[in-house]
Design goal:
Largest sheet: 4 strands, mixed
Order of helices and strands: EHHEHEHEEHHEHH
Number of strands: 6
Helix content: 40-55%
Strand content: 5-15%
Strand order of the largest sheet: 5-4-3-6
Radius of gyration: 23 Å
Structural class: alpha/beta
Shape: extended
Number of helices: 8
Length: 234
């Protein structure tokens, strides 16, 4: 577990009086108690009785590493292919005609970054890792294509990127049909591995104008097993 420190600093000495007033207010018992109740953060003021959920010790917490190499090593260990991971993300991508041009270019660029193409400081930490299971569903007025890979190396990410790069636009936008497909896929995966953590990511630029109506989607969603409804979020 890593702790990050975000101090409140005075940048302009001319405002020392206001700064002192704010810090004194923040340290009041009533304010510290309010912050704890609203945000579930441990109060700085030790005189404030902690919420029952905050009374356990935090354990062996460390401050954020000051060397990029340490972070890189931790991320590499997280993506160790010899370790069993149970995470899966189902991407539901709008390939209707309105996504042509700049919008699709932006979507593909974002996906390429997740696949390791973004070499910026932030991009290095927002990408797919070995062991993760990824599903891409392209949709227009209906589901156009679905592809699932378990990331073992660059070739798997390349195959997924090709799916996103492929054309084949639809004439309309079936948002609820796509989301229904996502939950069906998640239910199928959870039936095989109940411990798997699955999330759905829906990317669209328009409103539903084809396929399932919202009421029908809700009916189908409510018919899913309770465990699926509770565990899988969009």
């Amino acid at each position: 577990m890593v702790l990050a420190d975000f101090p409140l600093l005075l940048l302009d000495p001319a405002h020392r009086t206001a700064y002192d007033k704010v810090t004194q207010w923040l340290r009041r018992d009533s304010v510290q108690r309010h912050i704890m109740q609203r945000t579930l953060r441990r109060p700085v003021n030790t005189a404030v009785t902690r919420d029952a959920r905050l009374r356990e010790p935090v354990g062996n917490a460390l401050f954020y590493p000051d060397q990029p190499g340490v972070v890189a090593a931790l991320l590499a260990d997280y993506g160790d292919p010899d370790r069993r991971t149970t995470s899966q993300v189902v991407f539901l991508l709008d390939f209707s005609g309105s996504m042509r041009g700049a919008r699709m270019a932006a979507l593909r660029e974002a996906f390429a970054g997740l696949s390791g193409g973004d070499l910026s400081a932030s991009g290095k930490f927002t990408r797919f890792y070995r062991g993760e299971r990824l599903t891409v569903v392209r949709f227009g007025e209906r589901v156009l294509e679905e592809k699932t890979v378990t990331v073992t190396g660059p070739d798997d990410l390349t195959a997924l990127a090709r799916t996103v790069a492929r054309g084949g636009y639809g004439d309309a936008t079936a948002v609820w049909s796509a989301l229904d497909r996502g939950y069906t896929t998640a239910a199928r995966e959870l039936a095989v591995d109940p411990d798997r953590s699955i999330s759905l990511v829906l990317m669209t630029d328009g409103e539903n104008n084809a396929g399932l109506a919202y009421a029908e989607f809700v009916r189908r969603h409510q018919a899913l097993p309770a465990a699926v409804r509770a565990a899988v979020h969009t």
